[in-house]
Each structure stands twice: as structure tokens, then as C-alpha cells.
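Entry:
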Amino acid sequence: QLQLVESGGGLVQPGGSLRLSCAASGFTLDAYVIGWVRQAPGKEREGVSCISSSGGSPNYADSVKGRFTISRDNAKNTVYLQMNSLKPEDTAVYYCAAVEDVLQLFRLCHKANTYRYWGQGTQVAVSS
């Protein structure tokens, strides 16, 4: 009964902000590396950001550095992605994904195929 449920997506204007949430059910996130992965129409999934099980060492794709911030609240069993200064190129379905924090997998968290568990995704559209 491992589930990840994303929320917070929507339509925003360029330069706007959104905060995505990923709530875990059936397990606790404190032993997992968590990533946000996005997929635009016609493109493969790409890693956006990831965070270690302890909340340290967040990583970001070059395309979102300085604009997005990942965080986790293990007490609430929730991970967040704060997205600021959104661009049309950020339009995609955003997925929350998790993998057990073993075998030094955090060093691979920038790769979409690292993850074992996936949410259903939440749509983000950036358009004027």
C-alpha cells in the first residue's frame, strides 16, 4: 500500500509561483530519497530536484537552479517543491517519486530511472 499523491499544480502566468506537495500513504518517507520528476508532452521524464532522507544535500537540475526549492517535513510525511519565477518551459506533469535510501542511490537521484515508487502526477501549466 505504498502511495504518493501530488497536489498543488495548476495554471499560472510566467513569473508566477506554485508550491507542489507530495503526501505519502502506507509508508513513511524518512528512510527514502525523494525526487520531483517532470514530463512534458513528447519528451522523456527528467529529474527536476531531489532530496536525501534526512533533508540535506538537495539537488537541482541546471534549468531550475535558483528558482525551485525542495524540502521535506518528515513529521507530516510530506515533500514540497516551491517553484518561483516560472517559465513556459516548466509546463509539464510533475511526479513525486521515491526510492529507499540505500546503496548510495542519492548520488543518482538526478536520474528519473532511479526511482521505485511514483505518484500519479500533477499538471503544471505556465502560460499567459
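The chain has a mean pLDDT of 94.
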